[in-house]
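Hi X.,

You mentioned you wanted examples for the new student's onboarding notes, showing what a folding record looks like when two proteins sit in one file. Here is a clean example. The first protein comes first, with its sequence line followed by its structure tokens.
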Amino acid sequence: MTNQHYASATPIVTTFNLPIPGTFGTTAQLCTRYQVSRTTWWRWSQMPGFPRAVRFGRSVRWPVEAVEAFLTPQEA
């Protein structure tokens, strides 16, 4: 058996694997996009007014545009 090096578990971030506005993104995609941990994402999701997750079978997705609107500071 050869000694092979395997790729790290950290995903490579490209524009191809980030969610497209108007679609639904996974928790991992959105954590990568906003550069936050899954713990921070969970904490944000518990805040009043944060967009609700949508279940597609066993998969949980977030509406990208609604999340972006929530996280963008509103001008007074």
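Then the second protein repeats the pattern, sequence line and then tokens:
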Amino acid sequence: MTRLSSGFVGLQNHGDNTLIKFRNIRIREP
């Protein structure tokens, strides 16, 4: 279970970073 929990946390963190990157790119676009 611990291994699965770590994987879920990693996916969540990666997802947040991806969303932030998309937001930055979107803001850069005119």
